[in-house]
Amino acid sequence: MAVTVFVYGKLLQSLWEGRINFATDTIKAMLLSSYTVGSTQDTAQFLSDVVTAGVGVEATGGGSTGYTAGGQALTSKTVTYTAANSWGTQRANSTAYATGDVVRPASANGYVYQAVVGGTSGGSVPTYPTVIGQTVTDGGVTWACVGRGVLEIDAADPSWTTGNPGTLTASHVLFFKDTGTPSTSPVILYWDLGGTQTASNGGQFTPQLDAGEGLLTTFTG
Fold first, then answer.
1. For residues 79-107, b (16+ Cβ closer than 10 Å) or e, as one string?
2. Domain ranges across the chain
3. β-sheet with 112-117: strand ranges across
4. pLDDT one-digit tens code per residue, 163-180
5. pLDDT tens across 75-109, in order?
């Protein structure tokens, strides 16, 4: 199922306060059956600001749902930084690109570019801007200059298998560091699943990002 990523505004505060070590902490994915986001994307710092406050409702766990209350711990966590000139995907002529794809020029110039409008690239190399935030039209693609390097935060996709019979329903996935206490468990980001999604009767509930994006991709300038 396709997902859209939203990062909590106070994530950087939690990082600078030393509250999160992604590589070594227990990071969990919690399914929400509903989430009225409102201002929480900017104001929430801890799990209690979302779930205990009632704006996000955790999915029903136990029994044949395949879901355990409190969420699933992420495995195979990685944090990787790649300088722009070493980025593995080079822009090519007459090639289809999706919104969110990241490339570097075939003739590396120290910057990476992200497709803000997907489409098919032109038949010749565009003139790349070298000011972060500027864009260039390339056939049906619009590229934005996004940085001089890429930081990728990734993990194995969380997945839950329902029983038969059994049903699991969720509309969002919330990622957080689990300290065992909601009021001290920092929230990181959430995925909007584009509406209520359901798996049942032995089916798997597996939200998944594009393989090139990981859990979260950020850029350095």
1. eeeeebeebeeebeeebebeebbbbbbee
2. 4-77+155-209+216-220, 81-151
3. 102-103, 112-117, 141-147, 135-138
4. 999 999 999 999 999 999
5. 999 999 999 999 999 999 999 999 889 999 999 99
